[in-house]
Amino acid sequence: MTESLAASIATLQEMIQDARIVAGFTGAGISTESGVPDFRSPNSPWMRNKPIPFEHFVQSAQARREAWRRKFVMDDLYHEAQPSQGHLGIASLVASGRMPAVITQNIDGLHQASGLSEEQVIELHGNGTYAKCLSCGRRHEINWVRRHFEASGEPPECINCGGILKSATISFGQAMPEEPMRRAQKLVASCDLCLVVGSSLVVYPAAAFPAFAKGNGAQLVIVNREPTPLDEMADLVIHAEIGAVLSAFVS
Ligand SMILES: [Zn+2]
């Protein structure tokens, strides 16, 4: 560890200790260290195919078959992913009582896998570890959908209402989920420190939350391997591996 990284971590520890409410905010970088590919990176398996817009998914059975086929291929790439030091560091901050919840752009469920409850994770882009009915909202397990799909070549219908099942993620063209957006807004409005971990802060509206926290008087800390557009307004920026920084908080 370089001297400057150690000094930055010490500063971050002090800032967290002085804060009353810390809002966590995480992006793909925290999960790439778990082996989950960043779907926006140029070499990502996601980028080999043009995304299926939400409208197309709803209108076309063929698009739905293709979406599910791709989904299962991707799942096989990272089904053994485990929480990283970054996830564990965030989980420790939540357990300490200082961080009421973490807002995440990720859909991989790894914050929950690190021990956080559903209430402690605010998912802006949904969750790819289960499916939801687009009509009645009923949750269906992915493994059940997959068994059905592999047996018949078609995704099953909702067992409750016969509606269309979709992985519980937010697709291109799909509205942002209302309740998580509300909860995220409430958290950033109440925090006095916003800790951004592993987000390039270029995907909106998600990236607006840290900017709002800063504008509302909170301190802003950004931990990311690469520079972000909000670095200039941040009180502390650490460009390093997530695990190298957050492991200092794992208890
Ligand atoms: Zn339904």
From TrEMBL:
Phylogenetic placement of the source organism: Bacteria, Pseudomonadati, Pseudomonadota, Alphaproteobacteria, Hyphomicrobiales
Which positions does UniProt annotate for Zn(2+) binding? C133, C136, C158, C161
Keywords for the protein's UniProt record, in alphabetical order? Metal-binding, NAD, Transferase, Zinc
Look up keyword NAD and say if it applies.
Answer: yes
What EC number(s) does its UniProt record assign? 2.3.1.286
Name of the protein: protein acetyllysine N-acetyltransferase
* Domain Deacetylase sirtuin-type stretches: 2-251
Q: Where is the active site?
A: H125 (proton acceptor)
* Natural source organism: Microvirga vignae
Query: What Pfam family does this protein match (any one)?
Result: SIR2
Q: Name one GO molecular function term.
A: NAD+ binding
